[in-house]
Amino acid sequence: MTPITEVAGRRIALSNLEKVIHPATGTTKGELLHYYATVVDALLPHLRDRPLSFLRYPDGPDGQLFFTKNPPPGTPGWVKTAPVPRSEDPGTRQVMVDGLASLMWAANLVVEFHTPQWRAAAPAVADRLVLDLDPGAPATVVECCRVAAWLRRRLAADGLEAYAKTSGAKGLHLYAPLEPTPSERVSAYARALAVEAEAELPELVVHRMAKALRPGKVFVDHSQNSAAKTTAAPYTLRARREPAVSTPVTWEEVAGCGDPAQLVFLLPDIGPRLRRYGDLLAPLTAGPPAAGRLP
């Protein structure tokens, strides 16, 4: 029998709590749910008001993985959804996570949380810029850190403050909070920045996605600024054999990274980091005081 748990006044069926989801460490679904319950205060501000996409991996990373934007079958009526304009289906709605109950309901599906760079109240108007630094082997996150340092300085020259997190996979994500700006304009700026990075660091950076160009270099993926694209949210677990978390990092950690293992953070690491640093990406959710303006 599936246990029914009351969470913040909502009754939620939490299933298969002993099922191993991350096989490298034997991490169970129950441990996954406990993780999300303990990081809720840090995670929710990064999800709230944004329509979510889910990468579902209910049988772990070795099972079927599928990406969904539509509310899954059986979504409770109390889970909020928001209209999301899409050319192929103008009536589309997506899930909104706005509290502990909806977070636990979504986490029970075993998902990665992915968000756009805009909020539901203003579709295609971004309040942040994102750059996804993806290393092509034999390059690693160490090379990503070198590129991140250059991009940080370049963004600062335009009056934009950059913040970093691990992707939870191989690379880094850089964010800069913005005054509300049309996604098309942010996309154009981000692409120009990636092109400039390649021109300045040709031995290290590529701005085009073609895999043939990427061995030994860092792909500066600017495409996630498109209104139609999403990025793995801060603090989301990733669909990997280890319970890797997309984790905010300090610039000191970026500058000091000489070994890829230094920027691998697993589920048990996040609580102590939050107690030590708080949410290093809090400026992304702070609104106008922290927001920059594109030149």
UniProtKB/TrEMBL annotation:
Hydrolase found in the keyword field: no
Pfam families in UniProt: LigD_Prim-Pol
This protein's UniProt keywords: Ligase
EC assignment: 6.5.1.1
Gene behind this protein: ligD
DNA ligase D polymerase domain sequence ranges: 28-280
Any GO molecular function: DNA ligase (ATP) activity
The protein's name in its UniProt record: Non-homologous end-joining DNA ligase
Source organism of this protein record: Streptomyces pyxinae
